[in-house]
UniProtKB/TrEMBL annotation:
<dbReference type="InterPro" id="IPR032088">
    <property type="entry name" value="SAT"/>
</dbReference>
<dbReference type="InterPro" id="IPR050830">
    <property type="entry name" value="Fungal_FAS"/>
</dbReference>
<feature type="domain" description="Fatty acid synthase subunit beta N-terminal">
    <location>
        <begin position="11"/>
        <end position="133"/>
    </location>
</feature>
<dbReference type="InterPro" id="IPR016035">
    <property type="entry name" value="Acyl_Trfase/lysoPLipase"/>
</dbReference>
<dbReference type="Pfam" id="PF17828">
    <property type="entry name" value="FAS_N"/>
</dbReference>
<dbReference type="InterPro" id="IPR041099">
    <property type="entry name" value="FAS1_N"/>
</dbReference>
<protein>
    <recommendedName>
        <fullName>Starter acyltransferase (SAT) domain-containing protein</fullName>
    </recommendedName>
</protein>
<dbReference type="Pfam" id="PF16073">
    <property type="entry name" value="SAT"/>
</dbReference>
<dbReference type="InterPro" id="IPR001227">
    <property type="entry name" value="Ac_transferase_dom_sf"/>
</dbReference>
<dbReference type="GO" id="GO:0016740">
    <property type="term" value="F:transferase activity"/>
</dbReference>
<feature type="domain" description="Starter acyltransferase (SAT)">
    <location>
        <begin position="171"/>
        <end position="320"/>
    </location>
</feature>
<keyword id="KW-0808">Transferase</keyword>
């Protein structure tokens, strides 16, 4: 497979490989030497990850190999300085431009990922690599307008956003973990700042003794083994604000993946509603007409949900049923 950078400079072939997979580019001669050095370190990193028994990485297609190398080079841009930084930045931009021209071909990255004969985890890694590279190189996405939003703008369809209430069990935290892992460039700041807010609110004396296992979502995300049990996660003071954060995260990802700010996205929506606690999120997002407004309203929204959860728990504390009561209800 040959990817050609459209740059009016002297070009030279450059290839990378992993097992039976290979990808080739034509890069400016001035970047070839440094791209080769980056590939050597990337190859060692990839080999180490492939041998990792806990979190092995298996690449099944050239598009995956290209995405991982592209993301690796982008992260090196952040780590380097001066001339090396300029070179890695130039290489990152070229790799990303060619990745879009060759693999995406004006399609969305999610469309490409869904068509790959790879595992769900490999598809997730493809999304992460692409969006992290876009974020580091300050590259705007998407290539084309969403067909659904175009239809809404033309009056062919009517779009509404609906935010749900509490679900069953503590699976919502897995959803937050997935958002944080796949789209850190989109929601990393939102989640980390919300984590600071939750810790601050939970330390308020009026919250009582409802947070016996703390309220540190960043610790739970970075160290899954520290995540509290399901009974603690489904308690109202914990679940109310985190479910709200998950919904805000999905809203932010939808906007950023389509290259829109909340105001532009909002203009394509006819209305917004919610069930139970989802009403709070719906009201907040209906007023968010910019990223600045989104951040401000997200803080207010999560604060309201936190206190609703706390007061609900204080007014109706959890009670354990005796085996006889459980048997009698069957």
């Amino acid at each position: 497979m040959l990817l050609t950078a459209q740059i009016p400079e002297s070009l030279t072939p450059f290839s990378i490989s992993h097992g039976s997979l290979s990808v080739s580019w034509l890069l400016p001669y001035r970047l070839h030497c440094y791209a080769t050095r980056l590939y050597r370190t990337f190859e060692a990193t990839l080999a180490a990850r492939s041998d990792n028994s806990e979190h092995p990485i298996t690449l099944l297609s050239s598009v995956e190999l290209a995405a991982h190398y592209m993301c690796y080079v982008a992260h090196e841009t952040q780590a380097n300085t001066d001339r090396a930084c300029t070179q890695t930045h130039d290489i990152s931009k070229l790799l990303l431009e060619d990745f879009e021209a060759t693999f995406l071909r004006s399609n969305d990255i999610h469309t490409l990922a869904s068509a790959l004969p790879s595992s769900d985890s490999a598809k997730d890694e493809l999304l992460r690599c692409y969006y992290e590279t876009c974020f580091i190189t300050k590259h705007n996405t998407p290539l084309n307008e969403s067909a659904l939003l175009k239809a809404a703008r033309e009056g062919i369809v009517s779009l509404y956003t609906t935010f749900s209430g509490q679900g069953c069990g503590g699976r919502y935290f897995d959803e937050l973990r997935e958002l944080f892992r796949l789209y850190p460039s989109f929601v990393g700041t939102l989640i980390s700042e919300s984590g600071n807010l939750f810790r601050e609110l939970a330390s308020n004396p009026s919250a009582g003794r409802l947070f016996s296992k703390g309220f540190d979502i960043m610790a739970w995300l970075h160290h899954p083994q520290t995540t509290p049990d399901t009974e603690y996660l489904i308690s109202a003071p914990v679940s109310f604000p985190i479910i709200g954060l998950v919904q805000l995260g999905h809203y932010a990802v939808s906007c950023r993946a389509m290259g829109l700010d909340p105001g532009a996205f909002q203009r394509s929506i006819r209305g917004s509603t919610g069930h139970s606690q989802g009403i709070v999120v719906a009201a907040a997002m209906s007023a968010a007409d910019s990223w600045e407004a989104f951040d401000r309203l997200a803080t207010s929204c999560l604060t309201v949900l936190f206190w609703i959860g706390v007061r609900s728990q204080q007014a109706a504390p959890q009670m354990s049923l005796s085996p006889a009561q459980i048997q009698d209800s069957i």
